[in-house]
Specification:
single chain; seven-stranded antiparallel β-sheet; about 170 residues; 1 helix; mainly beta
């Protein structure tokens, strides 16, 4: 892109609806979709993976069902409003999630949705608001057996706001 030009990508998952929008200079939208079943599934996959940055979202009381695979991995399944997705999580000796994998996450390729292997890696864990969260993450799709990264980032700062619960005083 020419210097000073930027593309804004907005992905969301709200109330069971996935949406995505791509715009030039945050003003000219040249791609936008919402509510397509495959997009909903892909967005829910992304939400599940991003749970490493808000670990309480990965707890069973948040709807995630865990099934152990081996000593260092487990399958996490999340169902929301009729859409169900699963990710294989990999863990190190400290119990930190070091990666995620799906043999088939929906993505849009060449103008149509299809399931493609998807993987992410996490590292540089630190204490943040009483939780251990990664300071670095990356994700990508597999093309011809090779992981092609589409996002990577160092988390410089995070703020958490927890919903307070009022205890019964009776």
């Amino acid at each position: 892109m020419p210097l000073g030009t930027h593309i804004r990508v907005l992905d969301s998952y709200i109330d069971g609806i996935g949406s995505g929008r791509v715009s030039l200079l945050s003003a000219i939208t040249f791609a936008s979709e919402e509510g397509i079943a495959e997009l909903n599934s892909g967005a829910l996959h992304r939400y599940l993976a991003e749970g490493v940055w808000f670990p309480t979202a990965l707890l069973p009381q948040s709807g995630v069902a865990w099934s152990p695979i081996d000593e260092h991995s487990a399958l996490a399944t999340l169902t929301d409003r009729g859409t169900s997705v699963s990710l294989k999580f990999y863990f190190n000796e400290l119990g930190e999630a070091t990666g995620i994998y799906s043999a088939g996450r929906f993505g849009q390729f060449d103008g149509r949705y299809k399931k493609v292997p998807w993987q992410g890696h996490f590292r540089d864990y630190r204490d943040q608001a009483g939780m251990r969260v990664p300071g670095y993450g990356e994700v990508g799709w597999y093309a011809d057996g090779v992981l092609q990264l589409v996002w990577k980032g160092d988390i410089k700062n995070a703020r958490y706001q927890f919903k307070s619960e009022v205890a019964d005083s009776y």
